[in-house]
Amino acid sequence: MEDPLFWSHETTLTSQGTSARGARTFVREHLLEHHQPALVDDVRLVASELAAMLIGQDGQGSFNLSLRGGGGEVLLLMQDGASGSVEDILRTGKPRPDDPQLLLTEQLSERWGLAMTAAGSVLWASFASADPPAETAARELVV
Question: What integer pLDDT is reported at residue 21 of this predicted model?
Answer without folding.
Answer: 94
